[in-house]
Amino acid sequence: MLVLWGLLGCLVFYSHATVSPQHASEPAFWNWEYYQSVPRWFLVDYAIGVGASLLGSLAMLRRSRKANILYVVSLAAVIVQFGYLFATGMVAGPIQAFAIPVFILGVAIFQIWLAGMATRRGWLR
């Protein structure tokens, strides 16, 4: 499930990073001004977050302890990403705008917990 979660994150990142003015008017996307206002470092942080999450999940499948550090890197990127969004007021309004970041943060914390438990039980080498 965590590999699928990582793949979904990469798909959402790809759609975010490649949005064009033509697609920005479609209902599935936010407004074009939002995409133009996001700094380049934010996209790099976003890529690190979803990439580290996916690589951490793949490391878990390979029974590698590298999953631990990859999940910590992913959590750090998530904190930076949503910290920026909340600090700049880009995420404000309905409860859905708050629930999704909290859910993503919860999954990142769960991944770290799961990798730690797997390490303690000797499942990861």
The whole-angstrom Rg is 16 Å
Overall geometry comes to: elongated
How many alpha or pi helices?
Answer: 6
Strand content: under 5%
Mean pLDDT: 87
Sheet with most strands = none
Alpha-beta content class? mainly alpha
**How far do the termini sit from each other?**
21 Å
Number of strands: 0
**Could you spell the SSE succession in H and E letters?**
HHHHHH
Low-confidence stretches: none
The percentage helix is over 70%
Count of the domains: 1
Oligomer: single chain
Verbal overview:
This protein is 77% helix and 0% strand. The chain is mainly alpha-helical and 125 residues long. It has one domain. α1 (2-17) runs antiparallel to α4 (40-61), α4 runs antiparallel to α5 and α5 (66-87) runs antiparallel to α6 (95-120). The relative contact order is 0.13.
Blueprint (SSEs and pairs):
Elements: H1 2-17, H2 21-24, H3 32-37, H4 40-61, H5 66-87, H6 95-120
Compact summary:
The chain has 125 residues and is mainly alpha-helical. Helices cover 77% and strands 0% of the residues.
